[in-house]
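Training component of the fellowship. As part of building independent skills, the fellow (R.M.) carried out the full modelling exercise for a liganded target. The chosen ligand was fe (iii) ion. The inputs are recorded below so that the supervisory panel can assess the work.
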Amino acid sequence: MPITLMPLPYADDALAPEISAETLQFHHGKHHKAYVDKANAATAGTDLETASVEDLIVAARSKGDKKLFNNAGQVWNHGFYWKSLSPTKTQPTGELAQAIDRDFGSLDALIAELASQGADHFASGWVWLAATDGKLAVVQTHDAETLADGVANPLLVVDLWEHAYYIDRRNDRAAYLKVVLNQVLNWDFAGERLAAGGAWTYPAEKVSEQA
Ligand code: FE
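Fellow's submitted model of the complex:
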């Protein structure tokens, strides 16, 4: 089976007003879908036709297939981004809260670091909270580059591509980062990822996760 467009884990208006339904409809229904369609078009009729998103990323990276890598990386990163957002306000707890205090001093300091690196990131990309060698770190990746197949364990990601905020915020990335980082980050998911100890798996089946 080819890879699928993972459903949003919430209704498309669930993150409003921080992220509008129109933004999510375009971002998920047009942008994320286009990456899925292009990855499937690139692998149709090849031995990668039924490969997982993770396997496509690894194969494309090793073959130097930039086009496939970009589309597969963007499929995975968007799935991880939807999971990184929550319609209900969450807070870091337990092991995650302790690790944030240990490595950043406070949650406010971590959010300030994510905001700063996210705002300073040149052009398109992603800003991540990740665990590496038992420490938390803020990491940036460019374009479709991903932490899906690396040594760092990604806990959260924020999309820095203009398509993530242009409808709601025009060119004001800092305003988008401010509301996303303070209001809708899914700290429960980050805690689960820290406890899991390895990278998240993009869903293989078109199963609705909506309650
Ligand atoms: Fe995006």
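The panel noted the following from the submitted structure. The chain has a mean pLDDT of 96. The chain has two domains: 21-83, 94-196.
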